[in-house]
Amino acid sequence: MAPQRRTATKAPEGNGASERRNRSSTKKDRAPREVQRLWQRPWLRTAGLGAGLVLTALLLWSSLGADDGVAEVLARRGEVVAGRFIEVPCSEDYDSHRRFEGCTPRKCGRGVTDVVITRKEAERIRSIAEKGLSLGGSDGGASILDLHSGALSVGKHFVNLYRYFGDKIQNIFSEEDFQLYREVRQKVQLTIAEAFGISASSLHLTKPTFFSRINSTEARTAHDEYWHAHVDKVTYGSFDYTSLLYLSDYLEDFGGGRFVFMEEGANKTVEPRAGRISFFTSGSENLHRVEKVHWGTRYAITIAFSCNPDHGIEDPTFP
Ligand SMILES: O=C(O)CCC(=O)C(=O)O
Ligand SMILES: [Fe+2]
């Protein structure tokens, strides 16, 4: 729009012929007629239409971008991130909770690493999720399995798989599965502690800790609506540090389903990759959402930590 206006007003000034031809016109009506005449020139009309098209395309692109919430990629699926950390100012969310010095975030931010959990480990963990979730699954697009509480999505509800399946659950899961969960939790805890400069022992595993399986089936209940923007500290209360371990690959196993940190004009996405850990402080400095999954199946596990020992839970144990 701006270049078009500049052309229309500037051209008559420098165009002597046009001025001479219009000597009889009053000052008042000169500009519109000159603009009209200029507009009748084919090249200007083409340029104007071109600019209009570019502008429309830009507006469309930015509105689609805003809807999609995508601006920059923090971690691409195809790259191996050896450790990336971006500090962001802490929100005030932590002030309304009891503070634990040396743990409650004073340094806030988000990190990604692909070198802590191997692809092989991710595949083994994913098979735990597959085994557990094969026993149930939501009617809608999002199912969860919480090894700690035993919560498993079934239809439009949850069941406690330990109660529901009783001793039979020992035929599904193995001691090694739980051992693996513990090892992964430990590695994630150390990664978070190091990135935020705190002691790993000040972090307490907190609930809920769960596997998620998302596909493109339409949501049936509010539990299936995983795509809403949220703040983990608000949603889950006890969370101070959130981690996500991805168990499948963006654009290989599923489409859509990118993780988005929402920031005004500068959303950042994390593209899931098997074995990728994404971790961040849980306050509103890290408002986020998950894009809708358009095809395929996306597996992840949410493991979070609290600074408050009262909110700590033990690792899940083999029943
Ligand atoms: O699966 C993800 O990428 C994010 C999940 C999430 O935001 C959550 O569990 O609170
Ligand atoms: Fe979240």
Gist?
By secondary structure, the chain is of the alpha+beta class. It contains eight helices and 16 strands.
Architecture overview:
With 319 residues, this protein is α+β, with helices and mostly antiparallel strands. It has a single domain, classed as Sandwich (Jelly Rolls), CATH 2.60.120. The protein has 8 helices and 16 strands. It has helices at 2-14, 16-21, 27-40, 42-68, 119-133, 161-165, 175-196, 232-236; strands at residues 72-75, 84-88, 108-113, 137-138, 142-145, 151-155, 157-160, 204-214, 241-246, 254-256, 259-261, 268-270, 277-281, 288-290, 293-296, 298-306. The protein has a 7-stranded antiparallel sheet, with helices on one face. A 4-stranded mixed sheet has the order 1-12-11-14, with no helix packed on it. A hairpin with a 6-residue loop joins strand 11 and strand 12 (268-270). Helix 1 (2-14) crosses helix 3. The longest helix has 27 residues, at 42-68. The chain is globular and about 75 Å long. The N and C termini lie far apart (67 Å). Residues 1-39 and 59-67 have low confidence and may be disordered. Bound molecules: 2-oxoglutaric acid (AKG) and fe (ii) ion. 2-oxoglutaric acid is lined by residues 212, 232, 244, 259, 288, 290, 300, 302.
Topology (SSEs and partners):
Layout: H1 2-14, H2 16-21, H3 27-40, H4 42-68, E1 72-75, E2 84-88, E3 108-113, H5 119-133, E4 137-138, E5 142-145, E6 151-155, E7 157-160, H6 161-165, H7 175-196, E8 204-214, H8 232-236, E9 241-246, E10 254-256, E11 259-261, E12 268-270, E13 277-281, E14 288-290, E15 293-296, E16 298-306
Parallel strand pairs: 1-12, 4-6
Antiparallel strand pairs: 2-3, 3-13, 5-8, 6-7, 8-16, 9-13, 9-16, 10-15, 11-12, 11-14
Bound molecules: 2-oxoglutaric acid and fe (ii) ion.
